[in-house]
TrEMBL record:
Keywords: FAD, Flavoprotein, Oxidoreductase. One of its GO terms (molecular function) is FAD binding. It comes from Hyaloscypha hepaticicola. This is FAD binding domain protein. The keyword Chloroplast does not apply. Pfam families: FAD_binding_4. Belongs to the oxygen-dependent FAD-linked oxidoreductase family. Residues 55-227 form the FAD-binding PCMH-type domain. InterPro entries: FAD-bd_PCMH, FAD-bd_PCMH-like_sf, FAD-bd_PCMH_sub2, FAD-linked_Oxidoreductase, Oxid_FAD_bind_N.
Length: 490
């Protein structure tokens, strides 16, 4: 080791985790932007993870770049060490272990790249890939503008957009990724470049759904639109009225004339510490400043235990309280719209969870249903296209997010097995009814699922071709093990 580098590394009091050669080389270039175990900056990143599964991994070093050029320098070095694996961290709201952190390798924490700016004629919003959506909405609300982004303001811009992205504005403008005008990206060679409809258009399309398979996006340029106040809030109902809620949801989600300003998420909640303890509620948003839109009249007519619908702005409504670190589990599926299917899903869930015993601990289960209407998927062929494979020919559908959160890691295996069983049982029910869709939303998927495969054979092959072209050595496939990979061999 070079003596000066050794002295630089030594000042951090490294302990327990071996320092890899690639960490030493990156530190020789980026100096204080590289942190090691035992330092406050290293621990700050480790403590920022949303899930215990991710926080339980310990990289040899953590790189916190200040600029896109810093990312470029780090990737150039990493690509020269084929045995050095690394992970890319935004705000890590995909909870699976290894998706945004790594044991013994290098974690690149992008959250310092969080600037939000707009051009002079207000046609392009430029967002650092480490920003949270709340940063974006707070900035744009003052300009009476918005963009398609995450509904929870604490979610990161990077992960949500690269996975597609469902927003409150989805019926009006499509997936969040459909609204990207340009990606600033660091390729496997370390080159910092731009991908858009005229420059690297193949990569531009691949990034819209392709996640971390092609490079590290350092900036997203999004197309804004005029936006004032919205109607937003939660309607909670007695679980005994669930069938009425399912009918109201289905009447909106399955409508041939879907209201482009309507967005809703109907959720079932179950607390394992109280047997049979179910709740049901709907987060409803109307992206026009109307206090009583007709589209929600059926929901409002159902007896409720809470109704907080009110006019507000997006930055206020999206400013949610973060949860403490917990174990998290995600599974997903997509199905044709049917109130009967939703009722049968509830019965299936109840049968499994009622008999689940977890002594001395608890698990909270949340099953969310979100419309995927054709008015939203019609944007998939516009603005250079996307890679998701969703299309109006699939008909109106809804996406399910089955999630679990629990404090005691002792029960990781039983929660995983239970979640897998429930997802499998729901798929069987939907298949029997002719309502099972192939698409799996990647931002809600478990590592055991195959969301990229659900994009369809042609899209998968397209993604592989783009990968071979822009990453011939397979840096993103071999050295970045986290996330959903393309299945390429090298």
């Amino acid at each position: 080791m070079d003596q000066s580098i050794g002295q630089f590394i030594g000042q951090f009091g490294i302990r327990s985790i071996p320092v890899s050669s690639c960490c030493i080389q990156i530190a020789s270039v980026l100096r204080s932007k590289v942190s090691f175990p035992g330092t406050s900056s290293y621990e700050a990143t480790q403590e920022s993870y949303w899930s215990i599964q991710e926080a339980s991994l310990y990289p040899s070093c953590i790189v916190v770049p200040d600029t896109a050029q810093d990312v470029s320098e780090a990737v150039k070095i990493l690509a020269g060490f084929p045995d050095c694996q690394f992970a890319i961290k935004g705000h890590s709201h995909m909870p699976a272990s290894g998706f945004a952190n790594i044991n013994g390798g290098v974690t690149i924490d992008m959250t310092t790249l969080s600037s939000v700016t707009i051009n002079n004629d207000h046609t392009v919003v430029s967002i650092g890939s480490g920003a949270q959506w709340l940063n974006v909405y707070t900035y744009l609300d003052t300009l009476d503008l918005s963009v398609a982004g995450g509904r929870n303001g604490l979610v990161g811009v990077g992960g949500l957009t690269l996975g597609g992205g469902i927003s409150y504005f989805a019926p009006r403008v499509g997936w969040a990724c459909d609204n990207v005008a340009n990606f600033e990206i660091v390729l496997a060679s370390g080159e910092l470049t731009n991908a858009n409809a005229t420059s690297l258009p193949d990569l531009f399309r691949a990034l819209k759904g392709g996640m971390n398979n092609f490079g590290i996006v350092t900036r997203f340029d999004l197309t804004p639109f005029p936006q004032g106040e919205i109607l937003a809030g939660v309607i909670a109902n007695p679980i005994s009225d669930r069938d009425a809620v399912f009918t109201a949801f289905s009447n909106i989600a399955g409508s041939e004339e879907y209201d482009p300003y309507a967005s809703l998420v109907t959720g079932l909640g179950y607390n394992s510490s109280v047997k049979g303890s179910w709740s049901i509620g709907t987060t409803a948003v109307y992206t026009k400043p109307e206090s009583s839109p007709a589209i929600y009249a059926e929901f409002v007519a159902i007896p409720s235990t809470q109704n907080t619908l009110h006019l507000t702005n997006l930055s206020t409504f999206a400013d949610e309280t973060n949860t403490p670190p917990l174990n998290w589990q995600f599974f997903t599926g997509t199905y044709g719209v049917s109130a009967n299917l939703m009722s049968r899903i509830f019965d299936s869930l109840n049968s499994t969870l009622y008999n689940l015993e977890l002594p001395s601990s608890w698990v909270f289960w949340d099953i969310a249903f979100e419309p995927l209407p054709t008015i939203m998927t019609q944007y998939g062929d516009k603005n250079g296209g996307n890679s998701l494979g969703t299309s109006p020919k699939d008909g109106n559908a809804f996406v399910m997010l089955l999630s679990a959160l629990w404090p005691n890691s002792t029960f990781d295996e039983v929660v995983q097995e239970t979640a897998e069983k429930m997802t499998r049982d729901i798929a069987c029910i939907a298949d029997d009814m002719g309502l099972l869709h192939e698409f799996q939303y990647i931002n809600y998927a478990d590592p055991s699922q195959d969301p990229i495969g659900s994009y369809g054979v042609q899209n998968v092959e397209y993604l592989r071709q783009v990968s071979r072209k822009h990453d011939p050595k397979g840096v993103w496939q071999r050295q970045v093990p986290g996330g959903f990979k393309l299945g390429l061999k090298y």
